[in-house]
Amino acid sequence: MPLVALAQSPSYRSPGIEQAVERALSSVLGDDVTLITGKRVLIKPNLLSAREPERGVTTHPAVVGGVVDFFRKHGAEVAVGDSPAGAVRGVKRVWEATGMLELCEARGVPLVNFEASGCIERSVDGRDYPIARALLEYDLVVSVPKLKTHVLTLITAAIKNVFGCVPGFQKSTLHLEHPRPDAMSKALVDVFSLVLPWVTLVDAVEAMEGDGPSSGSLRRLNFIAAARDCVALDACLSRIIGIDPERVPTTREALRRNLGTASADSMVFPLLRPEDIAVSDFKVPGNWKYKLIPGIAAGLLRRLVWVLPVVDEDACTGCGDCVRVCAAGAMTLEAGCASVDNDLCVSCLCCHEACPHFAVGTRMSRLARLLV
Ligand code: SF4
Ligand code: SF4
Questions:
Q1: Using CA positions, which residue lies closest to atom 5 of ligand 1?
Q2: Pairing of strands 199-209, 140-144
Q3: pTM over 0.90
Q4: Which domain holds residue 9?
């Protein structure tokens, strides 16, 4: 039976946050902590783009610091790495803004740039994926995501965080090839099944609700959660925020492939129970019901039912990040402001994720609004 450890942490302040991380990881690893000694461990946070920790877009450095300390204490050689979707102007900006550079310099931990290491091709049922070559140098991958809503996959947590192991712009290309949630979730679960983290710890001290993963609102949940079974972990987190796990396409797809369990009855909770920390009225993305329309119907209804990015001209600085991340070539800069070509746009919303100034919102057709 999978263990899911839920540990309270009312803030990111030290030493409380490190103690919560230690409690959660010790509870799920048990005697397996002895396996850590002498291992090379890669810690993979969610560093979506160059936002400061207090924005709630990325895993908080205090949580990553707690995980670094835990694995070092048990004799591992540790590094931190990711390939942020919004690193179109270089990963160093992301390391700096998210607090990861300061954390890793203070602890003497190397930061690994997945884009610089190149990639290896891996396949799932004939579908090919580029995976960061850097991962080959480590014995264990430890995933440290942030709990957020997601405009495409409803939530992003344990399973989706692994997608960051696909280097750089190749993530956008996969989004372009799979604009619908079910198809994209299949690709996300493919990548997840290729990497399979050894253990996952989710930062839910401050989660994101509404139009996540980058333009939602902060929601204080005051806990962290750890498990070896990512499917169980995502299912448990979904229930805590009032979402049926079967509605989350990545969980549904992973269950279909028997990559874990979602049944609460078959999980063990060694610390808090989900009902101790469950919240009501957690806001899901505004476009979510539109995304439930089956792919074929969505294709037929495309002219009537749509969700498209819309640029706030006052907020746009003309930085061009959205242009660089758009694999469809639908974003251009005109007179220093981003502009969307709706005919080319496939509604993947990568631009919404990547914009560092929260200038890309979404708008829905009248019929889409009626459906939601
Ligand atoms: S919308 Fe404007 S501010 Fe946002 S990424 Fe595009 S160019 Fe930059
Ligand atoms: S404009 Fe935005 S939503 Fe449309 S295809 Fe490009 S990145 Fe995706």
A1: 355
A2: parallel
A3: no
A4: 4-277
Ligand 1 centroid–CA 310 distance in Å is 11
Q: Locate tokens 């979404």: which residue?
A: 362
Chain-centroid distance of CA 13 in Å reads 23
CATH number of the domain that 67 lies in? 3.40.50.11440
Domain identity same for 121 and 28: yes
Count: domains in the chain: 2
Residue 192's nearest CA partner among 229, 246, 236, 155 is: 229
Nearby residues of 33 by Cβ (< 8 Å), 6 or more positions away: 25, 26, 74
How far, in Å, from the CA of 301 to the mean position of ligand 2?
19
- What's the gap in Å between 360 CA and the centre of ligand 1? 7
- End-to-end CA distance of the chain: give it in Å, rounded: 37
What CATH code is carried by the domain that includes residue 299?
3.30.70.20
3-state helix, strand, coil in the chain (%, to 5): 40, 25, 40
Q: Of 277, 312, 336, which residue constitutes the final position of a domain?
A: 277
- The reply to whether 233 and 342 lie within a common domain is no
Per-residue pLDDT of the chain (372 residues; tens, 9 = 90+): 999 999 999 999 999 999 999 999 999 999 999 999 999 999 999 998 888 999 999 999 999 999 999 999 999 999 999 987 666 567 888 899 999 999 999 999 999 988 888 899 999 999 999 999 999 999 999 999 999 999 888 999 999 999 999 987 788 888 888 877 888 999 999 999 999 999 999 999 999 999 888 888 999 999 999 999 999 999 999 999 999 999 999 999 999 999 999 999 999 999 999 999 999 999 998 766 655 655 555 565 666 667 789 999 999 999 998 998 898 899 999 999 999 998 899 888 888 888 888 899 888 777 666 654
Choice from 313, 357, 358, 362 to test ligand 1 binding pocket (greatest atom count within 8 A of CB)? 357
What is the atom index within ligand 1 of the atom nearest the CA of 331?
Answer: 6
On whether both 210 and 320 belong to a single domain, the answer is no
